[in-house]
Amino acid sequence: MILASLLLGEKLKIQKNTNVSPLPVVADADFLIQGVIPPKIRKPEGPFGDHYGYYALKHDYPIVQVKRIYHRKNAIWPATVVGRPPQEDHWIAEYLQDLLSPLFPVVMPAVKKVWAYEESGVHSLAAAVVKERYQGEAFTGALRILGEGQLSLTKVLLITDQDVDLKNFRETFITVLERMNPITDLHIFANISQDTLDYTGPAVNQGSKAIFLGSGKKKNDLKTQFKGKLSNSSFKNPKIPYPGTLVVSGPKYKLKDGVPAKLLKEKFIQDFLFVFLVDDSEDTIRSDHDFIWSVFTRFEPAGDIYANTKLIRNHPAFYPPIVVDCRVKTWYPPLTEADSKTIRKVDDRFGRLIDSL
């Protein structure tokens, strides 16, 4: 209700009418659905297309036992379409972030600004500018974000103390990579909850999170050229979308296929900070938008990050290069895609509708 008031720019009009509902209702609502949510009763919902760009699977959810439906004259039923970003909800999500952004420093004093990338389905990737007034404050700010409401669903969080434009993913990502020491600044939290509709984890609602922390002065001279040849013929078409990163096409995923470990041993990737193993490197690097979606919706930090590691003071230290397996896994649901016949039909009808206005 607070959100609706912010969108309207005024206080919601609330009406009490016991003939309609025992609870107060929003007077300006187009529809009013009156009913009961019974405890402990669940029924299956799905599969359906979702904002991640994949189909959601069938799950049991609470139900509403509808008793009455009211509507105003000439009521409009609000609806949106979802699928691979950007869809209509992309612009809604970005607008809401702009609307709420002034509140972040108020509720989280160590955090200057936060941005969740809708291109990743919102929850897969976010970035933040935080304060680093003392050693480790940036990490404290990161934990504060991961403990805040819907932001707690964030799977990968980029953190920096530099005043970057978070909406500019390229600038933000490079800024973090330039300042990140993976040995101390890559933090993975395993065996925790994960967004219900993110199926990259071992089971529904189960997964992990990662913090990529890059603060202070530049530490890394990021490589911008790939010289040499990949020795394993199953690895193809290496591309550099951002300094210090390499995207490589690999074979179709098979369970426990050992492919990421083989890529980790390749001679000519050793000077890169991150190497992303994907199904199609050309498609992945087409734009920042494509990179975000193709990479961050297709890996789970605890299950898909590979590196030479060492336990230092009970902290897993990751030594670059760090290989991230972003191939489509066998258990992922199918992509949300419209068939060409439907696309032509919608385009034709939409065009005639616009022409008639």
Automatic annotation (TrEMBL):
It comes from the Bacteria. Pfam families: UbiD, UbiD_C. Residues 3-85 form the 3-octaprenyl-4-hydroxybenzoate carboxy-lyase-like Rift-related domain. InterPro entries: UbiD, UbiD-like_C, UbiD_Rift_dom. SUPFAM superfamilies: FMN-binding split barrel, UbiD C-terminal domain-like. GO terms for molecular function: carboxy-lyase activity. GO terms for cellular component: cytoplasm. Residues 90-212 form the 3-octaprenyl-4-hydroxybenzoate carboxy-lyase-like C-terminal domain. PANTHER family: 3-OCTAPRENYL-4-HYDROXYBENZOATE CARBOXY-LYASE-RELATED, 3-POLYPRENYL-4-HYDROXYBENZOATE DECARBOXYLASE. This is 4-hydroxybenzoate decarboxylase subunit C family protein. It comes from Leptospira interrogans serovar Lora str. TE 1992.
